[in-house]
Amino acid sequence: MLKLEGLSKTYKTGDPALSDVTLSVPKGQILGLIGPSGAGKSTLIRCINRLVEPTSGKVMLGDVNLVGLSKADLRRQRRRIGMIFQEYALVERLTVMENVLSGRLGYVPFWRSFMRKYPAADIQRAYQLLDRVGLLEKADNRADALSGGQRQRVGIARALAQDPELLLVDEPTASLDPKTSRQIMRLLTEICAERGLPAIVNIHDVPLAQQFMQRIVGLRAGRVVFDGTPDQLTESTLTTIYGEEDWHEMRRGDQEQQEAEAEARDRMAALAK
């Protein structure tokens, strides 16, 4: 289980990014973080694994407080946290398999990673993960030859290669089309259910969050202003999180855009025949 207790982050300029965030994420729960740009969503995720140093508060992963750990201890604890990035963070010139195996860097001696001589068990495990995310046939392809959705699947497999106890996911669908976005979110939710993995997903797409998240936390100006289930996310609550907006029209516009994109893909497929 992950517990955040009074987590705060204030930058050197004096600007607060997070203010007294307290919440817990039990085993197997998928929590979606929503909020306007600058609300602190990415900062919150990065404070958990200390890519950003919190100013105060606790980050409890099980019985360990990640805040205040030495660099060596933090490296060991980060093996317990899988991170999936918006821009994939793959090494483009390496193969898909090599990118997945990089998830084992925290477990193997430097010479093995430098020589790309991973243990046979790690290689076998990487093949299994690629099969799970639907990319087994792409194992020997370079990462820069993949589509955006395929790259995100590689990122998921790499995070799982760590055998993590927690997944942190930063805007996994921001660069993807609506159909691929749903496929990626479905894959993430299935994997978390299979493994009992808790996950925090920073997601900008509210309808997508409502469709796939078990729990939603809304941030505004670094503070938690909503914490509940998707069906509790009313238009009034959305206004509290984002400010005034015609949410009915926005949702209808999103649906119309998705339908238009689907029609365009169908036309292109028909012309290709």
From TrEMBL:
One annotated GO molecular function: ATP binding
Domain ABC transporter: 2-246
Annotated spans, Disordered: 249-273
Compositional bias of kind Basic and acidic residues: 262-273
Pfam family name, one: ABC_tran
SMART domains: AAA (SM00382)
UniProt keyword list: ATP-binding, Cell inner membrane, Cell membrane, Membrane, Nucleotide-binding, Translocase, Transport
CDD domains in alphabetical order: ABC_PhnC_transporter
PROSITE patterns named in the record: ABC_TRANSPORTER_1, ABC_TRANSPORTER_2
Protein name: Phosphonate ABC transporter ATP-binding protein
Organism the protein comes from: [Roseibacterium] beibuensis
Source lineage: Bacteria, Pseudomonadati, Pseudomonadota, Alphaproteobacteria, Rhodobacterales
